[in-house]
Amino acid sequence: MPSSSPDSNWLSRALKRSPRPHEDELHHCAACGKDYVNPVEWEPVTPEAWWMRLRCGECHVWREVTVTNTVAERFDVELDRRADLIHRALAKIDREHMVQQVETMIGALRHGLIEPADFARPA
Fold first, then answer.
1. Which of 79, 38, 75 has its CA nearest to residue 58?
2. Phi, psi of 110 (to 5 degrees)
3. Percent of the chain with pLDDT over 70
4. Which of 5, 63, 70, 78 is least surrounded, with the fewest CB atoms within 10 Å of its CB?
5. Nearest to residue 58, comparing CAs of 80, 29, 79?
6. What is the rounded distance in angstroms from the CA atom of residue 63 to the CA atom of residue 90?
7. If you ran DSSP here, which 8-state letter would residue 71 be given?
């Protein structure tokens, strides 16, 4: 029979977790722990601090935070790093797609399925 002590109960363990991630970890979700959090709105509240409304792309939880400029700058660097990863992945997919299109065109030309007249402009 499973132990019924509070420490072995999943609900007790879940409730003991901090409801908010560490201030420096804006990209981690307070609810699911995934690192899919992005800013939706933001504005400076003082010369030294920013208010941000964040949303997790995994579990769709929203939260509002006010952070120092230093934390906001680190978050911005992390967002830029992630955007760069997405951009590079998209560029790779784009290149692969173009290669497939060129190979299809070459195959069609070799098999006589298309000819130069197919690309002529009507007079």
1. 38
2. -65, -35
3. 80
4. 5
5. 29
6. 29
7. H
pLDDT tens figures, 83-119:
999 999 999 999 999 999 999 999 998 999 998 788 8
CA distances to 72, 89, 116 from 69, rounded to whole Å, are: 5, 30, 60
Task: Give 51's DSSP letter.
Answer: E
d(CA 30, CA 56): 9
User: Tell me, what amino acid is at 46?
Assistant: T
Number of Cα atoms under 13 Å in the Cβ half of residue 10:
1
Check if the beta carbon of residue 73 is closer than 8 Å to that of residue 67.
Answer: no
pLDDT of the residue at 17: 53
Strand partners, 68: 49
Domain ranges in the chain are: 15-111
Tens of pLDDT, residue by residue over 6-17, are 455 666 555 555
